[in-house]
Amino acid sequence: MDESIVHLLWNCDLARAIWFGSAWSIHTDCIPIHNPAQIVQNLISPPPEFQINWDLCEEFLLTGAIIIDQLWKYRNSRVHEGSTLCAKKILRNVSVLWLLRDWRGKVVLALSKKVNTTIPLQAEAEAIFWATSIAADQRLNRVCFKSNFKTCMDCLSSPRSDSHWRISSFMSQVCSLTSSHPSWSFKWVCREVNSAPDALASLVS
């Protein structure tokens, strides 16, 4: 069996199933890749045949990074431990995490959990809903929720706007909670500012 990086991450049956099972239904058998650098380049700058809108490129990059990470972990566990794992389980292996900071910016609480999706937009929406639910349970009245996913923040900043169908249920629940907490606010931040949750999520995954 060919054990090249390209075969493992792009051409083998498991990789093809996972890429096709992603939000963008990538047909890897129709997109020839000759070296690992091409895979990285396609994630950073998706070619036209991927049909990915420019505003979703960041989410596609994150999804691709997760897929590659999971495929590599699966390869190692199979080679060294003889374990088996189906594509469905790999697609679900995504973590969401949120941090609670006080008024000084100091982290006072960090929580993480697994979600049943490999789509970053859905994972982020669930993380926001989870955070608002806990804030409501703890009766926290003055909270600013921050996320580096602009799609979610735009939806919550302008509740009358239509949300992406993949997150409409979560966003509706968040808006319902927000209606009872007028001092809550939502703010988009760049990924660099939100690096702490991203780093911690990678440690707990």
UniProtKB/TrEMBL annotation:
<dbReference type="InterPro" id="IPR044730">
    <property type="entry name" value="RNase_H-like_dom_plant"/>
</dbReference>
<dbReference type="Pfam" id="PF13456">
    <property type="entry name" value="RVT_3"/>
</dbReference>
<feature type="domain" description="RNase H type-1">
    <location>
        <begin position="96"/>
        <end position="202"/>
    </location>
</feature>
<protein>
    <recommendedName>
        <fullName>RNase H type-1 domain-containing protein</fullName>
    </recommendedName>
</protein>
<dbReference type="GO" id="GO:0003676">
    <property type="term" value="F:nucleic acid binding"/>
</dbReference>
<dbReference type="GO" id="GO:0004523">
    <property type="term" value="F:RNA-DNA hybrid ribonuclease activity"/>
</dbReference>
<dbReference type="InterPro" id="IPR053151">
    <property type="entry name" value="RNase_H-like"/>
</dbReference>
<dbReference type="InterPro" id="IPR002156">
    <property type="entry name" value="RNaseH_domain"/>
</dbReference>
<dbReference type="InterPro" id="IPR036397">
    <property type="entry name" value="RNaseH_sf"/>
</dbReference>
